[in-house]
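DATA SHEET
Item: assembly model
Revision: 1
Owner: S.N.
Input lines:
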Amino acid sequence: MSTKTPYYHPTGKEVEVFEEAYKNKIPILLKGPTGTGKSRFIEYIAHKLDKKLITISCHEETSSTDLIGRFIIKGAETVWIDGPLTQAVKNGAIIYLDEIAEARPDVIVAIHSLTDHRRELFVDKLGETIKAHKDFMLVASFNPGYQRGYKELKPSTRQRFAALSFNYPKEGIEAEILVNETGVDISDAKKLVQIGNKIRNLTELGLSETVSTRLLVDAAKFIHTGLPKRLSIKVAVVEPLTDDNEIAEALTDLCNMMI
Amino acid sequence: MSLDEYIYGKFAKYLKHNRKSSAEIAARIVHLDDIRQKLIIVSRAITGCVIEIFIAEREGGYKNNNFFLPESMSLFSTRQQNLWYYLYRIIYLSIQKELGLNSTEEGNTLEESRIKAAENSSTVLKKLFEDFPVAKEWHDSFYQQIQTNTAKNKAPDLTWLYGKWMKDDTGGTPEKKLNNIPGSTFKKETILPKTILKANAVEEVTVMEVDKKQQEDYVLNHYFEKVDTADEFSGVWRDFDGEDQLEDHQDALDELNMRFTVRVDDPTHSVYQAEFTENTTISESAEVDGKGYHIKYDEWDYSKRRYKEGFCKLYPLNYHKADVAYYKNTIKDNATILNNLRKMLANVNNKMQQLQRQTQGESFDIDATTDMLVDIHTKRTPTEKIYNTKRKRDKDISILLLLDVSLSSDGYAAGERVIDVEKQASILFGEILNEYNIDFSVNCFYSKTRNFSNYVTLKDFDEDWNNAKYKIGGIDPQGYTRIGTALRHSGALLDKRNAKNKWVILISDGKPNDFDKYEGRYGINDVKQALRELKQKNINSYALAIEAQAKYYLPQMFGQNHYQILTTPVDLLSSLVKFYEKLKCLP
């Protein structure tokens, strides 16, 4: 665990909510578009609570085996290896399932018994039930704007979580985040945030995701270390957003006018 | 053209030509049309409104969400500067719009509105320079150049920089209506026939072709003794006045023998029911030379059992009008349906397939493990492929949605407008297909005789759904239903795709019919033939019809299991899901 507290600027009551949730061991679902600080928040809070954090990035092929554990063959023997979830359950860590909706349905079924009063994990391959450590807590993140049809969470799953919604911070706070995160000038940070908000205006452009705080942070980093401003924005904001030349050109013009 | 007109025309052309011929100007001129798309994006980003950009008479201004800009710009010395000029105007207008500085009263002269604009420019500029630092530099450079270019004794023409004030329209800007053509020509259901009368029985009816020439030449003839009566066709053409006067004519009609009918494209005003035996010969339309790009398709003549080669002209069109609100409302109003649809499709899509002997997976493949142990004992290098895993099956599909947008789709089925059901279903289904990364295309068709079969592509296979989705809302019903030609063109489009499974889904509300001879058995048989052609190309077809009567002719055309009749339009979505399921279950 790193000794330095990760930087996180609360935009609401999320820290308080999480701390209370942790006391009660209520699973938490972090919702929000990419780059709004979900992962950063959980790192920060784990550090604050001084708990070990295990992050699992779920993808389409993430199965319960990957989480719970598997037998492997060693010589002529089969040996069981705990998966990250089993480890967390045993040792009392905070487990963070990033983009949980991406995972296969069996993952979600596997965590069901952990999210209610039972707080236990059934390892089917061993025929064992593991009681969760008292410090164990489950956190998941989910991006509702992702627009992937089969990546909706089932209501029965969603109701097992308390949910915190994340969104792009307000202008002032976002600028502050940029400054803290990168050390860029406050005036540049403000400009970047303004640009970000202008681009966020464009809802019908066919951008599947819009400018996240993360992109702005990247641009600010470039600027801070000395890349020309306009170029920084082009490579860190415009190009990651779109592959369409026309849109890219328009966005570049827009950014160039504003900084 | 008279001589003076001719000379004037030549002269004007010469002047126009001369003005543009300068190579210097050509090198630096910027045309609005070339950069319009880009400017639209920039202005929408800055204002957060759905801005459209139009060509102005001269310097332009803004009106509600419409920005007016000069058609081209060559005032400044370099091409880059002229480009900047447009950007400058965009941000200027955006700020002006934000500050709400525009005319409130009607009838300002051009002079007044320019003065207004210039007077208020300092307010706009102040904010402009604050928000967009680069604008000051641009403005100053433009100002300089305009000043140096003006003759000494004249005031510099700063209207280019500050534009003119325009009057905001209250209540939005409706589309321009055509003034000279009654709206009824385009809409069918606006006028419902109120009067229905029964005719005397006749045995044979001959259909006459409209002789437009004679109609135009019709000299006002007054038959004073026949005021308010109808007469039998005697070779004199009159204009169709389109009034519902049937009742007034009732007595006269009773005296009448109906022997001739005329087909017109006027909407129905009164219905005069006549029973007659169907031995009418509908006249075929004569060949008309097609203008613009078109493709000729054959048509099947069932009575002669042969193709009429190159009989139909099909015009492939691209659609550009977007109706963003329609899309948004559809998604909003049908959020629940969309989610259900998602769920249903997710079930279909998430069916797993067991894969054996993989390098990694959830469980051991017992056979493979046994083999491995045997290998180990016999001192051979064992394989690592000893796991079972499950994968989702990906289907290699191309789907072409074909919408019938003929006038009949303007009608209502179970209280819902058919065209709206078609549009909404395509939007929702498209949304889902897009999420599942399925190769699909949305097209619609309408026709007016064999010479004008229009085939409008709303979403091409390779087009981004995020652009195409807004276009679907903009479609309006028009024309007739020449299904065969549209199917043939769909086949040609699908033929170019590489997918293994190709499908045409026809969503229609009616049977084949067209203004000329394309109905009854002829039409049905042509559709049947077109479907046979698809089959030969290895393209599957599926028809969804929103009409109870469809059961009489759909089976004839599509064959068992290849169609579904929906008694209410709401069923459409669930049918699409069923169809999708069917498609996924195929080997």
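QC remark: Confidence is low (pLDDT under 50) at residues 171-192, 201-206, 220-229, 275-281 of chain B.
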